[in-house]
Automatic annotation (TrEMBL):
Keywords: Membrane, Transmembrane, Transmembrane helix
InterPro entries in the cross-refs: YjdF-like
Native source species: Curtobacterium salicis
Spans through the membrane: 35-55, 67-88, 94-118, 125-146, 166-186
Name of the protein described by the UniProt record: DUF2238 domain-containing protein
Amino acid sequence: MIATLGTTFLRRPHGAVWAADVLRIATLVSLPVATVGWGGVAFAVMSLALLGAVVPRMLGLRPTFDAAVVLLCLVAAWSSALDWYTTVFLWDKIVHVILVGLLAALLVVIASDVGVVASAPRAGVLLSALVALAAGMAVGSVWEIGEWLGHNFVDDTIVVGYDDTIGDLAADGLGALLAGFALPWLSRERRIVQPMHLRG
């Protein structure tokens, strides 16, 4: 999978891949729109969303999983621009659970592909859950550091604080753990990863 990132990314879309590609286009269009309308912080967040939209296609993930990652990255980015995290009750935590769960699963897929960890079916439920939990906490920690840096050096309206950080990390861990428990079953059902370059 990793060895064919370029060719996999440039493959012609077919079937359900079209849905994910439409979301990728929406993310690309959102970048200048959010930048003009909401400024530099929105640009940075939407750029991360665009990265999250590109990576699944490069890896040739199963279209449903691909679309889910792109959609959640786009929703998360716009939620930041539109300030939903502070105005919609529990929205921040819901997005953390779902998005970080998907990203943790994505990291486990990449790690298993390069041979760092065993694939989910071989590793079993418990080990897959623990690896996904570690991946999710790593993603969450990097994000919280980014929020702190943004608050202190870019825009002090970015919400940080002990309770917010601990709550976000707890939601990250929950989402990653749930994704980890689901990984072996999802892999057996071939609903997470389908190397598209093997499908022509």
